[in-house]
């Protein structure tokens, strides 16, 4: 098969588009023919990218890209509920090779039927971002109707899903975004949008029930002061993993694969309640542009096969 493979610690300049062995599924694994995978630039600094599940260093070359949309190509003998040819979307395990390749391995618990109203490029932008927003707002923060929710980075991959989910839950949604994205973020459900380049959010927002921090650093530090007495901050910013402050550690989480939630997300997508936001779609040959050209909104996607 053809794949993008990382040959050393570094950035997109360390990726090579080359031939690689097609993976063979174990009895509990599924082989997926990948049609599209979304770009997550922070993977170059993730611990699982370079380490195994039980520790130790993973050997190079390494395939990145852990969310995908495609079709089931082969099924391990212990897997049930799937058929060859099923259109699916979901995640591969963080500690194994990912989906920047014509084929990838996963397990049935990490995938679900692809939303029928999306093409593969759109569907590939869903799993990590939508599951992150779901697990942050619904599982951890337990958002409720009329609560005040502040989403930092409302036009981003996670932020755009968070705005839509919070709106769906009938919360009062405030989001930060750049000037070019303010109208867009309002259009997907934000009641207020703060241009973070011109207005410090803490000067105009107070008594927030839930803050979802997708930015980290100074943005997270200033967010504590806008929370209500019983308010909760949830952060997914990668820098939080390295901090020792107990309140930051308690607020930080890493998204987990969840088939049931992917099915629920598909239903909301097909009911036109939420939609993914794709910045641009690139070919495998143009993978460096996919990393270098930061999307104005949403996530960039790599096209692996004809869509």
Layout: helices, strands, pairs:
Layout: E1 2-6, E2 15-19, E3 30-38, H1 47-50, E4 67-75, E5 87-91, E6 103-106, E7 111-113, H2 120-124, H3 127-140, E8 148-151, H4 157-168, E9 172-177, H5 182-187, E10 192-195, E11 208-213, H6 217-223, E12 227-235, H7 246-251, H8 259-270, E13 278-283, H9 287-292, E14 299-303
Parallel strand pairs: 8-9, 8-11, 9-10, 11-12, 13-14
Antiparallel strand pairs: 1-2, 3-4, 3-6, 3-14, 4-5, 5-7
What would the principal axes of the Cα set say about the shape?
Answer: globular
The secondary-structure element order is EEEHEEEEHHEHEHEEHEHHEHE
Distance between the termini: 18 Å
Low-confidence stretches: none
CATH superfamily of the largest domain: Medium-chain alcohol dehydrogenases, catalytic domain
* Quaternary organisation: single chain
CATH structural class of the largest domain: Alpha Beta
Sheet with the most strands, sense and barrel status: 7 strands, mixed
Q: Estimate what percentage of residues fall within beta strands.
A: 25-35%
Total E-strand runs: 14
Domain module tally:
2
What CATH calls the topology of the largest domain is: Quinone Oxidoreductase, Chain A, domain 1
Overall pLDDT? 95
Structural class: alpha/beta
Number of helices: 9
Proportion in helices = 10-25%
The gyration radius over C-alpha positions equals 19 Å
Q: What CATH architecture label of the largest domain applies?
A: Alpha-Beta Complex
């Amino acid at each position: 098969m053809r794949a993008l493979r990382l040959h050393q610690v570094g950035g997109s300049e360390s990726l090579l588009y080359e031939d690689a062995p097609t993976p063979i599924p174990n009895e509990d694994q599924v082989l997926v023919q990948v049609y599209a995978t979304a770009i997550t630039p922070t993977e170059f600094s993730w611990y699982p990218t370079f380490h195994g599940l039980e520790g130790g260093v993973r050997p190079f070359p390494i395939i990145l890209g852990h969310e995908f949309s495609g079709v089931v190509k082969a099924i391990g003998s212990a897997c049930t509920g799937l058929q060859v040819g099923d259109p699916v979307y979901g995640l591969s395990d963080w500690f194994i090779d990912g989906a920047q390749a014509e084929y990838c391995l996963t397990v049935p618990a990490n995938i679900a039927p692809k939303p029928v109203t999306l093409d593969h490029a759109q569907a590939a932008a869903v799993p990590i971002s939508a599951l992150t927003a779901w697990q942050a707002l619904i599982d951890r923060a337990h958002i409720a109707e009329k609560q005040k929710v502040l989403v930092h980075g409302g036009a981003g991959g996670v932020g755009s899903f968070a705005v839509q989910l919070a709106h769906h839950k009938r919360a009062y949604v405030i989001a930060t975004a750049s000037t070019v994205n303010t109208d867009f973020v309002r259009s997907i459900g934000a009641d207020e949008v703060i241009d973070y380049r011109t207005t410090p959010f803490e000067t105009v927002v107070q008594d927030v029930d839930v803050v979802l921090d997708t930015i980290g650093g100074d943005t997270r530090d200033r967010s504590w002061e806008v929370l209500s007495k019983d308010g909760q901050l949830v952060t997914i910013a990668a820098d939080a993993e390295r901090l020792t402050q107990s309140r930051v550690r308690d607020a930080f989480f890493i998204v987990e694969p969840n088939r049931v939630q992917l099915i629920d997300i598909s239903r909301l997508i097909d009911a036109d309640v939420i939609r993914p936001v794709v910045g641009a779609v690139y070919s495998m040959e143009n993978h460096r542009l996919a990393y270098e050209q930061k999307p104005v909104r949403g996530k960039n996607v790599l096209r692996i096969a004809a869509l």
